[in-house]
Design goal:
Layout (H helix, E strand, L loop, with lengths): L1 E3 L2 E4 L2 E15 L6 H7 L13 E5 L4 E5 L4 E7 L2 H17 L10 E13 L2 E3 L1 H8 L3 E2 L8 E5 L4 E5 L4 E7 L2 H17 L3 E3 L3
Antiparallel strand pairs: 1-2, 2-3, 3-6, 3-7, 4-5, 5-6, 7-12, 8-13, 9-10, 10-11, 11-12
Amino acid sequence: MSKNGSKILTRGLEVSISIQNVVASARLNQRVKLEVIAKAFPQVEYRPDVFPGLPFKLKRPKSCTLIFNTGRMVCTGTKSEKEAKRAVLKVVKELSNAGIIEKPKKFEFAIQNIVASVDLKGVMIDVEKAVYGLRERVMYEPEQFPGAIYRMEDPKVVFLIFTTGKLVCVGAKREEEVYRAVENLVNILDDTDVLLRGSP
């Protein structure tokens, strides 16, 4: 496999991988007064009667960090691990600069989920045949949902597999896991002879 930005070449196929969303969590290890944030940052919409968290949006990197009064934070909307960490650090810096929180010496940060879309260029997938090859770790009920749901063990991710050659990968904790999982799945599908090459 050779990796080039968001494309990999494996088994003679050009596979396009695009990270759509990275979900990260952080803990400040201190309580946060959300109503004070709402007053200090007029662009923030805080509606505690609707939702207990305060959404803190950034334009760069484009993201939304939910802040809870316990000091827990959940950041969504970034396109890489690096961007997610940068977004959380920027929110923490803005809150500490405004005197709302004490500047933490360190805080817990973890990637919880990476969602990626995958396109097997010029290839269709015989999903019904693939279901037999993937066996017990797959669920396919075409009358309810057009894609097969495949749970991979290593790395631990879930794929949605469509006949169009499009895939969705969820559950990875690192970007490297996305690439490894895609390569593993393409190899499995190729070995079970379900990739229909030369499709429009």
